[in-house]
Each structure stands twice: as structure tokens, then as C-alpha cells.
């Protein structure tokens, strides 16, 4: 038998581990696979952080995809629940259970089915998410603001602006009034730039096809008696149910890593890639530094990279490759938005559950997965209530509420550099002002987590990214996958799909990368199906 082809995978997040499993699950005799992960955790920003018996999901990860092969893939790793979860049983909720599926009260290796509810917090009121001119919105806004928003929207349907930036993209779909209330300040909070400075590509990718008519249409369909929601035919932002690993997203990636190792993959933790060598127009070796400072070189027939593109360009330079100056310039100019999440374990919430969705707790908590803080008066961008993602993320879901405050920031700025205690006090003060909690005495525990390069941004040299990707693609055996690996705001499923396409190319010998870069840009991968 011919020698195995060596594949070096940079990164142990969703993209990297998907590539590893796709290579070894049925082709271990053909490929010698090594995964290099700089940290000591699997999952990247899809990891699960553990703190004093409670678990944090960094950023919140709904397991839902328009790509059926991804849904099947997830279910093969963690089978769907066949019995009620802890909170479902206590509240008498009945999801469509999987015949013969595992009981989440008896085993951890199970995928839960969860109801999805997210709302917007603005001016001390909760609004539907995504925003729409629904009865709830009209009541919260009042008649005068509603009339302004309505006429503004009608004007936007006949007076279209050129979609050469994100501001115009939103105005065309929601009208200038709703844009100024709910999108302008939040977008600037998220990206640190005004929407007029950001490419419309981000909006087209994240909310393609989403507008007031789609939102209202989906709401009216819910009123039809006996109608069951069909998630395959609604925008991703409107889905009503999703899957979720019992112990958070990192649990799934821990299992994938274990499965890959059992099939022969090598996974090296604490391995920071510093150099990539090129010979005869193809990558030939990858260099990495270990925790103890030693340098190791691995020969490679193929390289699959999920590392940020600026780090990838630097690795080529360090490997002695003559990288064109314009390519280095574009790579170093690609911007990122960083992320800080502060977890607060509290005795109770001050905010009351005014929905018809039953919840646990004494008093009962609100049922939201996310609360988007689109009020510009607060620095926090989004709240997660981990109890509602999975009761198993919380050590005592009956008597405590585990919330995550998400702050969009820049690595090294004043907020990033706060001490843990300063960040805790800042977060508590905002929760009191928002009337989410009563006082600091309600806080039992806290944890702060910094996440660099969480969101690839669409400004600065982003409009020249083709110069960079074209040069990388000229190296036939280098594949860029994942969110940071492509500098593309991919969801978890999109990141996985980029690796599936890359592995398909390696197996077939295809060097053209159009299918790899095309994920989440082609219609079949977009927000609507």
C-alpha cells in the first residue's frame, strides 16, 4: 500500500476537528492526520467554560443548520434525546422526543431539543427579535413612534438607497426610523464603527431576506390553529427550535476529538504554529512551538488552516516564503472585534416573566436564550440566560440564575484591561440599572472570560481580501477554513461545511478552492433555503 498522505490541521475548533474526523472516519488508511491546537481546550469560541460547577457557552451556539448533512453529522456525534430533560419534566413541556434516544437524566452524551426565544431590550421595554411592527412593538413604542416607524418603512420601500454600506442595507429593509432606534447604535456597539463605514456584505450574509414582511408573515403563520413550525422554511433568525448538547457546545467537540483520536488522528495541544515552509509552489512543512519552548517541524502533503489570516501570512513569512508585500499588507489590515463575557450567578431576577412560556425558578425566570441590549445607554451588547440553553449548565437551576453579559470590545482597550473585580462590578451595575437584578447582594458568584479575535470585521482592508486569498490559493495544497481562517462571519455550521469541502477536495485531488470559499456565500448555504 502507498504511503499515507500527511495532513496538518491548524486549530482544534469546529472547522479543524470537522476536517480531522472527515479525514479519518472512513479513510484512516489513506491519511496521517495531525491537529495542532494552541490552547488546551477544544472548540475555539464554541468551547464550554467551566466555573465552580457552572458552565458558560461563549457567545451562545444554537445547533441548527439549513445544511442537512450538518444536522445528520451532529446527531451521529450526540444522539437526540428520547426522554424529557430536567426542566421539561418539571414544567410539563413535551418536545418531539426521538424514539429510542437517550435519557438526559441518565447520560451526558445526548443532544437536547430546545425552544428558542430571544428578545430586544430597549428603553426599559422588551421587543420581539428581530424587530417588527407587531402588536407588542406598537404597545411598547406608543402610537406616535409607531406611526413614524410605519411611514418611514413605507418610504423605504419606494425610495431605495444604494447598498454600498451596512447603514443603507438596514434602512432599505426596515426604514430609517427603526434603523436609528434599533440598528444604528447596536451595530456601532458591536463593531466599534458606524454602520456607514461597514460593508453591506455583513448584512447580506447575516440577515439575507429578512425584512418586516417576512417577520410579520412568520408571526401570522403561528396563529394558524394546529400549525407546527417548519424551521426549514424560515429565516435562521426566526427559528423556534434548535438542538443543544447537554453540557454545552464544547461537549460535542470534546467527543469529536476523542472519536478522531480513536480512529488514528494525532492531536497536539499547546502547539502554536509559527512557520509554514513552501517548496515548488506547495506547502511542505509546518513548524510549531510547544509549551516548553521547543520547536517542532512536521512535513505536510496538505495544510488545512483555521488560524486568522494575518497569523497565516506571518507563518509563511517566518517559514522563509517570499510573500508579496501587498498580501502582507492586506492580511495585517484585516480587523477583528474582540469579546468579553462576564458570568453572574444570581439568586433571582428582578425582571418578571410576562410571556406565556413557563419557566423554572422561584420566582420564575424569563424564558429568553438571548436578550439583545439595543439600548445605547448600556455597554453590554447581549445577555444569555444559561438556564434556558440547558438546565445542566447550572449547578442549581431551581434556585439560581446563571447569566452571561456579552461585551464587544478591542483587545487591549480599557474594558479589556479591567481586572476581574472591576469587570464584575461594572456588569453588576449595568444589571441593576437595567432592572434585571435588584442589588449586588443578589450576586453569588462571577467569572470573566476574554475572547480575542471573536468576530472578523468587514472594513479596513477587507475590500482587498481577494488579493490575499488569491495568493494563498496559488498554493494548491493549502486550505483556509472556518470563521477566522476565511475572515468570514461564519456560523458554526458554515465553518464545518468549509472543512467538509476542503476534505472532499483533498480526497478527490481537486486544487480549485471555489467550493471551499463559496460556503455561506452560495444560496444553498445562506440564511434562507
UniProtKB/TrEMBL annotation:
Annotated Pfam families = Amino_oxidase
- Which PANTHER family does the protein's record reference? UDP-GALACTOPYRANOSE MUTASE
Top-level division of the source organism's lineage: Bacteria
What NCBIfam families does this protein's entry cite?
PRK07208.1-2, PRK07208.1-5
Signal peptide: which range, if any?
A: none
Q: GO molecular function of the protein, one example?
A: flavin adenine dinucleotide binding
Instruction: Give start and end of each Amine oxidase domain.
Output: 15-456
Record's protein name: Amine oxidase
GO annotations of cellular component type: cytosol
Instruction: State the organism of origin.
Output: Alloscardovia macacae
Q: What is the lineage of its organism?
A: Bacteria, Bacillati, Actinomycetota, Actinomycetes, Bifidobacteriales
Q: Which InterPro entries match?
A: Amino_oxidase, FAD/NAD-bd_sf
Amino acid at each position: 500500500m502507498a504511503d499515507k498522505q500527511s495532513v496538518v490541521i491548524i486549530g482544534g475548533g469546529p472547522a479543524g476537528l470537522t476536517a480531522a474526523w472527515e479525514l479519518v472516519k472512513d479513510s484512516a488508511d489513506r491519511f496521517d492526520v495531525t491537529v495542532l491546537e494552541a490552547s488546551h481546550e477544544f472548540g475555539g469560541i464554541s468551547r464550554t467554560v467551566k466555573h465552580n460547577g457552572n458552565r458558560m457557552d461563549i457567545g451562545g451556539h444554537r445547533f441548527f443548520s439549513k445544511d442537512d448533512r450538518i444536522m445528520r453529522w451532529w446527531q451521529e456525534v450526540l444522539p437526540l434525546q428520547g426522554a424529557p430533560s430536567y426542566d421539561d419534566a418539571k414544567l410539563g413541556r413535551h418536545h418531539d422526543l426521538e424514539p429510542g434516544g437517550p435519557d438526559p437524566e441518565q447520560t451526558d452524551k445526548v443532544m437536547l431539543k430546545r425552544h428558542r426565544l430571544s428578545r430586544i431590550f430597549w428603553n426599559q421595554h422588551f421587543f420581539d427579535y428581530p424587530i417588527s411592527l407587531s402588536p407588542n412593538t406598537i404597545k411598547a413604542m406608543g402610537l406616535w413612534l409607531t406611526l413614524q416607524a410605519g411611514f418611514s418603512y413605507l418610504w423605504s420601500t419606494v425610495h431605495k438607497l444604494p447598498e454600498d454600506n451596512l447603514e443603507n442595507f438596514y434602512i432599505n429593509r426596515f426604514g430609517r426610523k427603526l434603523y436609528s432606534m434599533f440598528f444604528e447604535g447596536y451595530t456601532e456597539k458591536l463593531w466599534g464603527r458606524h454602520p456607514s463605514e461597514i460593508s453591506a456584505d455583513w448584512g447580506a450574509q447575516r440577515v439575507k431576506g429578512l425584512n418586516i414582511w417576512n417577520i410579520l408573515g412568520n408571526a401570522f403563520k403561528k396563529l394558524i390553529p394546529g400549525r407546527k413550525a417548519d424551521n426549514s422554511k424560515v429565516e435562521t433568525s426566526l427559528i423556534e427550535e434548535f438542538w443543544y448538547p447537554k453540557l454545552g457546545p464544547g461537549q460535542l467537540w470534546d467527543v469529536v476529538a476523542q472519536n478522531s483520536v480513536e480512529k488514528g488522528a494525532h492531536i497536539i495541544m499547546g502547539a502554536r504554529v509559527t512557520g509554514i515552509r513552501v517548496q515548488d509552489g506547495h506547502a511542505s512543512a509546518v513548524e510549531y512551538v510547544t509549551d516548553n519552548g521547543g520547536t517542532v517541524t512536521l512535513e505536510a502533503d496538505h495544510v488545512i488552516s483555521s488560524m486568522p489570516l494575518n497569523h497565516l501570512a506571518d507563518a509563511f513569512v517566518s517559514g522563509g516564503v517570499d510573500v508579496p508585500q501587498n498580501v502582507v499588507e492586506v492580511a495585517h489590515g484585516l480587523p477583528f472585534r474582540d469579546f468579553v463575557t462576564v458570568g453572574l450567578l444570581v439568586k433571582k431576577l428582578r425582571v418578571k416573566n410576562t410571556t406565556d412560556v413557563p419557566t423554572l425558578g422561584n420566582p420564575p425566570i424569563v424564558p429568553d436564550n438571548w436578550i439583545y441590549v439595543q439600548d445605547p445607554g448600556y455597554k453590554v451588547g447581549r445577555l444569555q440566560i444559561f438556564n434556558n440553553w440547558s438546565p445542566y449548565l447550572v449547578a442549581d437551576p431551581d434556585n439560581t440564575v446563571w447569566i452571561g453579559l456579552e461585551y464587544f470590545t478591542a483587545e487591549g482597550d480599557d474594558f479589556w484591561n479591567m481586572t476581574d473585580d472591576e469587570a464584575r462590578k461594572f456588569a453588576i451595575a449595568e444589571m441593576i440599572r437595567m432592572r434585571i437584578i435588584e442589588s449586588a447582594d443578589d450576586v453569588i458568584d462571577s467569572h470573566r472570560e476574554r475572547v480575542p479575535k471573536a468576530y472578523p470585521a468587514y472594513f479596513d482592508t477587507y475590500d482587498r481580501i481577494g488579493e490575499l486569498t488569491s495568493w494563498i490559493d496559488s498554493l494548491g495544497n493549502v486550505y483556509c477554513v472556518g470563521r477566522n481562517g476565511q475572515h468570514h462571519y461564519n456560523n458554526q455550521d458554515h465553518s464545518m461545511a468549509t472543512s467538509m469541502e476542503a476534505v472532499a477536495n483533498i480526497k478527490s485531488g481537486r486544487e480549485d478552492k471555489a467550493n471551499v470559499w463559496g460556503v455561506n456565500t452560495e444560496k444553498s448555504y445562506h440564511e434562507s433555503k
